[in-house]
Prior knowledge:
This protein is α/β, with parallel strands linked by helices. The chain has helices spanning 5-19, 58-65, 79-88, 118-123, 184-196, 250-253, 291-318, 350-353, 380-388, 402-406, 436-439, 489-505, and strands at 31-37, 68-70, 73-74, 99-100, 107-108, 127-134, 148-153, 168-172, 178-180, 207-212, 258-260, 268-270, 275-276, 281-283, 325-331, 357-360, 369-371, 375-376, 416-420, 440-441, 444-445, 447-452, 455-460, 467-471.
Amino acid sequence: MLRPLAPFFSLFTILLCSMFSATSNGADRPNILLIYTDDHSHRTIGCYPEAYDWVKTPNIDHLAKNGVRFASAYIGTWCMPSRAALLTGHHPYGVQSMRMEGEYPGSEYDPEKCPFWPSVFRKQGYTTAQIGKWHTGTDTGFGRDWDYQKVWNRPRYPDNAGNYFYDQLIETNGGEPVMTPGYTTDNYTNWAEEFLRGEHRDAEKPWYLWLCYGAVHGPFTPADRHMDAYPEIEVPVPSDIYPTRPGKPEYAAKMNRWVLDPDGSGQPVLAGGRIDMDTIRGTTGVHGNTLHDWVRQYHQSVLAIDDGVGRLMKTLKETGQLENTVVVFTSDQGFAWGQHGFHHKLAPYDATIRSPLIVSWPKKFPTGAVCPSPVSGVDLVPTFFDLAGIELPWKMHGHSLMPLLTDPSAKWGHPVLTTLTARKYGDDTADIPTERESLYLGGIPWWISLRQGKYKYIRTLIQDEIEELYDLEADPEELNNLAMNRSHHGTVKEFREALLAELRRTGAKMVDHLPPVRPLSN
């Protein structure tokens, strides 16, 4: 059973202040730059073999050449839970007091019950900063968790929450919002460069900067300078873009976000002809409505991020900080374009949620290395504490990646648990809802999955729904559900039990209330 957070956290912070010692010497501890993108699939980055052969991301690729690229990273399932997990080190069902409230994306939390770990770094001598998208409660934590903040506080200003690329209300250090012109990806890079060059921080302290880009989220708007990029490209049509899909749960078997173009082009087109997301509604594509048009636009939007990575690495080098800065590049989750019929994140498949993850620190870690072991978003937090030489303030759900960063081929015995609990957190996830409004998000019901080795097991939390098992080495597109094959029923049962064990290890109260699965067929 996990220890209660609030009393333990208060005691621990007192102990931290009294233990502040030689380990807090800024010269001995690295800076940490976390570059965090939004709805950003690993398939859009050239160094990933799943990318289209026309993809060009030279700066991110260069980062991978100077670091460790993780082949299978599962950071989260959608925007807010991914960030809540990153700020606490807990899966969403362990994030207590977090709740959606008011007009979306309105949300609140109690910082006594839900402390964020950057406050611990502050007490241990780090300067902590966050720039960009904020999506975890109206309280951004300035002065408690962060020494410096320049953020787009979406939960506080829901009327502005759809402005992902232009005209954002920006708060600086908890002050009044200012309508800010300019392309937001570039704005965030500019502000991060200022911080790296020494503005808004103590030059004698190590620093942690969370640069949280809003790109590539819908409406997937490229910078003007990239509108003509990728003029002649080929976009293969996923084999299961149209229903039905044998071996999938009912919701996935019937998913129909794409239809054959009624005008006779032969191309899939987005059903309805526009984007319809919570805060992005009625937006049409800048090039058109075919799958080709949308994939091109999406990849164009990545290019400003790649530009930003190049600028930030150049700034670190020019300021003499590159050697002692750990650079981490990842995203909250991926995004599918036609795979399994989706135009979405949320679903348990690699096409919808798998993220890029690159960690670069040539001074300590191998370069040009690939780690094949699946890893989780909750593994990042204990890794940061390991890097900083700071003891963990509470029990984390994940495991430090340091063994894999020093030896990417090392054995890794930790399974990766991933969950979707719609808009519920903490104890509110103990009981599985049955009414559609609470059970589904974006047409996708609650689910839990476990990835270990080459297999992924998925359990949809609907009574008598089928289980899923995929061999991702033989079937990377997850088209063949092995749970339907009697010869794999033993493996299904093993993963079923392993998933329950991982839920129990991490204190998930839902473990005792899971709906029964459909019996395995003979």
